[in-house]
Structures are given as structure tokens and as C-alpha cells.
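Input.
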Amino acid sequence: MKLNIDYVFTDENEVPIPDYNLGKAITQALLATYSYEKDITGEEKYKRYELVQKVKSNGDFSIEEIAKLKKLIGMAFTPLIVGQAWDALENIGSRGRSEPA
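Output.
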């Protein structure tokens, strides 16, 4: 599934957040370290690196990869970004559209 990585997030008043899009949020979530992941393997880190490369090339994502992105975004961000990102990842309503809000 192709993602709209250029989707621009909005603040609580629906004002676009400058220079902040789905691609950046995904990349930040994938590259972050989380306190509960004390035993994360090099293999898992490499898989996340591969997903970052897929974001950069706007590749196709599997259902399993989308689930991983949702999980990591859910841990990395506030509800405002999580809600918009999850909608965009699921192509729900205006959040999945190709043009920014």
C-alpha cells in the first residue's frame, strides 16, 4: 500500500504545521529509542532502518508494516499527531487524501 508521506499535519485548530508531514513523523518514530525496548536486537533496528528507506523512496507497505508504524507512532507522539497519522496510514477520510489539509 502506498502512503501519502507528504500529508501535512494540522494543529488543534486545523492550521497546517509547517514543515511537518507524515514521512517525517514515521521516520522519527522508527528511529527513536523507547525505554521499554532495553533488549531490542540489531535485527529489529535494521528492519526499522529498512522501513525508513522505504519511506524515503515512497515504497509500498505491507499490512504488517503499517501495523508496526502505527504502534511506534502511538508510542512516540501526542494524541493530536497519533490520530492524524493513524487516519492517514489507514487512508481514512480527508487524512488519507493526497493533498495537504
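The CA atoms of residues 74 and 82 lie 6 Å apart.
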